[in-house]
Every structure is written in structure tokens, then in C-alpha cells.
Amino acid sequence: MHAGSGNRFKKPRFDDSEDVDVNEQQSTAEVPKVVFNPLSSYPLKTQRERLPVFQHRREILYLLENFQVLILTGETGSGKSTQVPQYLHEAGWSTTGLIGVSQPRRVACINLAKRVAEETGQLLGQVAGYTVRFDNCVSKQTRIKYLTEGILINEIQADPLLTNYSVLILDEAHEMSLLMDICLGLLKKILRRRKDLKLIVSSATLDADKIKRYFTNKSMSAEILNVQGRTYPITIFYAKDPVADYVKASADTVQKIHETQPAGHILVFLTGEKEVDDCCSMLRDYAVSQKQNKLFILPLYAALPAKDQMKVFEPTSPQVRKVIVATNIAETSVTINGVVYVVDCGYMKMTCYNLVTGTDTLLVTPTSKCSAMQRAGRAGRIGPGKVYRLYNQEAYASLREFNIPEMQRSNLTWTVLLLKSLGVDNIVRFDYMSPPPSKILVNAVEILHAHEALDREGKMTQLGTKLIQFKCDVLQAKILLKSIEFGCSSEMLTIVAMMQLENIFAVPKQKTRDIKKAQYQFFVEEGDLLSLLNIYTSFVEKQKSKQWCYDMFVNYKSLCKVAEIRNRLKEILIKISGDETLSSSHDPDDLCRCIASGYFTNAAYWHAASAQYRSICGDHPLEVHPDSAFFSQRPPKFVVFGKVIATHKLLINHITAVKQSWLIDIAPEFYQMGTAVCEN
């Protein structure tokens, strides 16, 4: 079996190139669409009145009448997102303007708008509608409008005082994303100018006092209201000693619960997609070996298609125990009925900006006390629950109170560019909810200047106005724009889309050797990004076959997601270029030069004496990640990289071979004579 004719570039040399032989069959059954609602058997009016937030209806309206800002906290599932906008509409707040509800995710916008439309007895787009990227469902009759944080910022750009709105609700504020932080800062300025505008900051859990202080001053007042949900006693068990492998320990704990504890679903918190999939695989092996047909094991993470996420809400027979293995998406974003037991690994994945390498680094770090409490709270929704923390009490006591906001740990190149596009000239003095470190801000400005997105005075250039339209990593956006010049837009759209996904290969541990052989069929000498291109090209040539994906150990759902992302990026690129005919190149040099034009600030050279790479900027030691195509072949002298993973050393991935002369040609000011790139 071979990968197909998609492999158009130079193959690396491997000693072991046997074909893979897999006989197992993969189910292709479609999952029916379901929407979870534990009160669905009741009339709509009864459903609304049984939600915890209903008891606070009068209080919410009173506080909003007397304070300009209301901070609303409460459990997931209390009704904040659907009911509060309706209370405001029913009380007449929508007669002078729209009631806007921002959400971090487009799917939430659409589903919440549908739910409110159903409850009001109207068609979607009448009283309740939504606006998300590439989709607008509102009309002149719309009074309650759900929109993403990105769309809200776009509207502020077009109408700096948001004159069409009477009330704005910022939902899911606990996530403290970059966009949320920017929205808070912009709205604080708008509220000073518009005394008639009201703001509700809503969240399952957040530092409410901090937000109150942020919005309280001589000209503005804020108040806090906590919506109490229905909770039951929770018993928390701690590990006596730290666990060496929290994925295996999670699977072992689930097995022990299943064998010794009464009925009730189990919710497991792990750090990422791979860990979730690995744990599910271990549990399925256990279920098969022990003939446990009463275990229904389900993964849950953000990259899963919506229909697969909805599986966790499907009812099961009383004899079947559900085990949901999830990332921190299950902390606050969803409510799963029937969970009695929670297993908490105590860790989370966090993207942090590494000033040493100038790249985002994915870290596995201890969670916060706030997150640990949220995870535990999932067990006490329908009755007394039990929580198994895979860490000891001393470790819990040492946890930080809250997770670090994105603004204080992220690469801020895109954020700075966005603020510049919004007319914020002095980015240091912008009123951030979570002020970022000045070094990261300065670094962002330097990178944007090196990429000609900002001029010497710090003003946004014409190139910068184009880059910001892609709503993705600035360096990846630069690659897409440069693809027009290098004549390889079709290939770069695929590569950038593929880079957005964490897991392209499915990795069951018992087939690691077979998977490596499958991966080798796609690997090429030019590097990881062209290897990713080969995978997607082969996928398309095989008519996007599920069976082909299964045979090649490729994640079918991930590649379908890539196709969706690629189409969105394609629309933006066509809009910017004005040309619907995408260029294409079969010359690997064109592709590698184009990649280098975006990643020239992330360049490294091979240091023969130490047998490792060193970053050109800073001369820091870097090692090749085991998943990279370059891990098992002769290293090129110069490379650029798009990903860094920090363990006890820095591992680089998404590597592309480049030539020294390309780097100097692409960025002559950045690479001046005497720097490492010239000396080596």
C-alpha cells in the first residue's frame, strides 16, 4: 500500500521502508444530531422557570438599572447565556438598541441564538439572531444578537461608540482570551463616552473583584451578582504520592471506580487531544479484555466535530456507565448530565511565548485552584459526587489561584497589529485588563517591523492591514500573502491550514511502529511542512476516503477540519489578491522560499560540534522533535521552524530546510553582516 501520487517532492532515505498492512475495519456510521437539555420533557415556560438564574431575574434588572457594569457569575447550565438577554428584552432594554451577547466560539453563538429563537416562538433571525465569521443571520426585527468576540471588535472598528447597542453581555469571560482582554479595554473607553450603554460581564467562574475594581472609578460604577446553581456535597480524594504517568493513572482510576463504585458516569480531565485519545484507547482495551460491555467511552475536546462532541449528551441505558475523557473544555463550556465521579489529572496545556526562541511554546503546567474547583464541581450536579485528584494536598495548596490570562503569556504580534488597526497608537498605555509584560510587547513590535507590518514610527503599513485580515498567526499570514509572489498559493493554503491542527496522525500505542512506517511514506527531504502538504494532497486524491485515512493511520476528522479551515483562508486570500485563480507550484524551492519569507525570524543553523541546532537569534540550543521528518535523517545546515515544545530542552518541529542566501535575500536588514547567519 502506498500513500498515492501526492508525494511530489524528494523522498528522504530510510533503511526500513516496508509497507504497512492493517486488517482492522473502521466504523463509518454517522452520528445523529442531538442537543442536550435535561428539562426537555417540560414545556418551554417551565424549562425557563426551573433554571437557577430565574430566581435572580428581578435582582439582575434592578442592578442593571442602578449600575453601568454588572459582573454576573454562576455555574455552567444556570441559564445565564440564554435567559438574561431575554429578561432584558422583556423589560424593554431592546427598544433603544440591540442586546448583544459575545461568545468566544462561533458554534456557541449559533446554538444559543437558535435556543432563544425557539423559546421566544420566533424564527431564527427575527427576535434572536447571530453574526459570526462567514455567516450572518439577523434582520431589522432582531433585538438579541449573538456574536463572536472577533465580530464585536470589527463592529467597534466600524462604529467606535457602538451606537446600535443598548446592552452588551460579554459571556465566558473566565477564559480571558486575548480578544476578551481587548474587548474589555475597548468597552471601558466606550462606557466613559456612553453613559446610557450597559455592560454585563458573565462567567462560570472568574476573579469578579478584579473586574469590579477595573470598571469602578469616578465616572463608572460596577456590582457583582452570584447566581447559585444546584449543587450537592462532594468528597475529594487525593493521591498519596505524585503519579509518574497521569494518562495511565487516569485510566487505572477509572477502572477502579467502575469495579468498586455504584452507578454514575465518570468525567476525566486530561491535558490535550493526544492524551485524551491515548486514555480512551487504554480504556477500550480494558473493556475488551475484561468483557466490560457496560462501559461507553467517549473523547471530548474542541477539535472534535460538533456531532461527535454531542455524543457525550446522548442518553444511555441504566446498565451502561459513560466515561467522558476530556480536556478543560468540560470545565465550564458544557454540562454533562449524570456525572457522579471526576478524575482530575491536575495539569493543563498552556501556550506561552518564549522570548528566548521568539516562538509560542506549548507547556504542560499544573492547573489553578479555580480550575480544580470547577472540575470538582462537575461531580455534584445531580447528587453527591466523588472527585479523585491525581496529586496530593500539598500540591493543591501550592497551585496558583487563577490561570494566567493569555495577554500575559502569549505572542502578541497579532494583538499589537490588531490594536494598531483599531487606532491605538500607544500600545504600552492601553488600559489592559491583564497588562502584558513590556518585553513581550517590545518584542512583538520588533517582529512586526522586521516583517514590514509596521514602519519605523510604529504605524501600520499597507502590508500590515492585509495581514490582520487573516485572523491567524502573523507569520503564517505573511506566508499566505507571499505565496502570491512565489506562485504557490494553493500549496501554502494547505500547509497553513494543516498547521492549525494538533493531531494529524492517530496514535494507538500498540501500533507505534506501523504508524512510523506510514508517516515515512509522506516525509520529504524539504521538511515537515511539505510532508504535511503531501498528506492532504494524498487525502484529496483518494476522494477524502475514510478507509484510506484508517489504513494510513491519519485522523479523518482532523483532515476534514483542515479542509474547512483551508476554504476560509482561501476566501480571504482571494479577497485580498482580487484573483480567484489560485497559483500552484511543483518546485520545492518556491515553497521553501515562501515558508522562509514568513519564518525567517525563526531560523536555526546546524552546530556540528554539539550535534544540534542553534537559533540564529540568540544562539540558543535546539533539538529536533521526534515527530519531525528531520529526526531520522541528515540535518540540513539551515532551517526555519514554526513550533517549539519545551520539556527539559527546547524541541523544534514544523521544520523546513532553507538556504543561507535565501534568509539574507528575504530579510537583509534583519540579517546584517556579522550575525550568526553570515558567520556560520
From TrEMBL:
InterPro entries reported for this sequence: AAA+_ATPase (IPR003593), AAA_22 (IPR049945), DEAD-box_helicase_OB_fold (IPR011709), DNA/RNA_helicase_DEAH_CS (IPR002464), Helicase-assoc_dom (IPR007502), Helicase_ATP-bd (IPR014001), Helicase_C-like (IPR001650), P-loop_NTPase (IPR027417)
CDD domains: SF2_C_RHA
Span of domain Helicase ATP-binding: 61-224
Keywords: ATP-binding, Helicase, Hydrolase, Nucleotide-binding
E.C. numbers: 3.6.4.13
Pfam families: AAA_22 (PF13401), HA2_C (PF21010), Helicase_C (PF00271), OB_NTP_bind (PF07717)
SMART domains found in the cross-reference section: AAA, DEXDc, HA2, HELICc
Catalytic activity field: ATP + H2O = ADP + phosphate + H(+)
Class of the enzyme per the UniProt entry, highest EC level: hydrolase
Top-level lineage group: Eukaryota
All copies of domain Helicase C-terminal, residue ranges: 252-423
Residue segments, region Disordered: 1-27
GO MF, any single term: ATP binding
Cellular component terms per the entry's GO annotation: catalytic step 2 spliceosome
PANTHER family associated with the record: ATP-DEPENDENT RNA HELICASE, ATP-DEPENDENT RNA HELICASE DHX35-RELATED
Similarity comment: family membership: Belongs to the DEAD box helicase family. DEAH subfamily.
Identification of the protein by name: RNA helicase
Natural source organism: Tropilaelaps mercedesae
